[in-house]
Amino acid sequence: MKIKKSIFTGVMASIAAGGLLLSNSAIAQNAWPTKSISLIVPFAAGGPTDSVARLIAVPMGQALGQTVVVENVPGAGGTIASTKVARATPDGYTIYLHHMGMATANALYDKLPYDPLTSFEHIGQVADVPMVLLGKKTLPANNFKELEAYIRANGSKVTMANAGPGAVSQLCGLLFQSRLGVKLTNVPYKGTGPALTDLLGGQVDLLCDQTTQTIPYIKDGSVKAFGTTTLKRLPAIPNVPTLDEQGLKGFEVKVWHGMYAPKGTPKPILDKLNAALKKALNTPDVQKRLADANIDIVPVGKINDKGLKDHLDAEINKWGPIIRKANIPD
Ligand code: MLT
How many CB atoms lie within 10 A of CB 281? Predict the structure, then answer.
């Protein structure tokens, strides 16, 4: 009897404790956020991913009532940051902005310590960014035809910057080289922010970069633009032909961004993050600054977990064969 009673008391006590724990966690989820939120960016400060993150961090923070602090975790084309986020505590205080490297890393790395589809919660798609093939302003070539001739004459003496394996600048640069059947000297950086600084300074010859920061430099002639990676010309730089129209038929790299959280982040918190992201993207200032850089905000129906997860899945399947066929990296 005594034993039974103590078992009963014990069971009741643990049910009560469980209830307390449950209600404590429900209270924590309701009160969230009570401190600043870290928005991890997988590339160096001053680059395109960092800029998009900083642009949306402020209005997201305003919507959530707490500061969203951008934290740059560069290296290995974004996979270091992805690993860090996959292993972070899923309490809503760590979120992540990454681009299509989340999909291409699968084909570029033998073994990733995370799975893009199952190691994260998918908050929503963010924006699509075009790219431009850029050259330093002292490069003797003035258009794509001249660039091709210059590359064929100089081969591996020509240097091309990128942000490491898994970065879109690397993918774009290697696809370009594969289409021309040439091998240049590829120079990795921790992001295209520092790579662009070196292109502007004339330390590297070429860089395939997103339009996020490059349009003013193209317009004022600080860099040469040899072609866009879109199938249509960009409204902000209508005089720059597409690579497709200059002979690289079907050459298209459009960089999409997604926002993630560690797997297991509670649904009520994910819902609040998603609402804050939508609100941030709807801010007139954010819309204007993205439009000025020819960045397209995705339709609102894609700014959700299904929109991002379906797109990520499709992109993993799309890029795997392209990367393998082009023998990237060889
Ligand atoms: C960056 O933010 O530095 C870029 O998105 C890197 C890249 O993928 O090329």
Answer: 22
Residue 10 CA, ligand 1 centroid: distance in Å: 56
Atom of ligand 1 at shortest range from CA of 167? 8
The CA-based dihedral angle spanning residues 113, 163, 190, 110, taken in that order and rounded to the nearest 10 degrees: 20
Confidence of residue 231 (pLDDT cuts 50, 70, 90): very high
Task: Domains for the chain: give ranges and CATH numbers.
Answer: 37-128+255-326 (3.40.190.150), 130-228 (3.40.190.10)
Find, among 142, 139, 135, 140, the residue nearest to 176 by Cα: 135
Give distance in angstroms: CA of 206 to centre of ligand 1. Answer: 15
- For residue 329, say if its preceding peptide bond is cis, omega within 30 degrees of 0: yes
Indicate the pTM of the whole model.
0.88
Higher-pLDDT residue of 323 and 221 is: 221
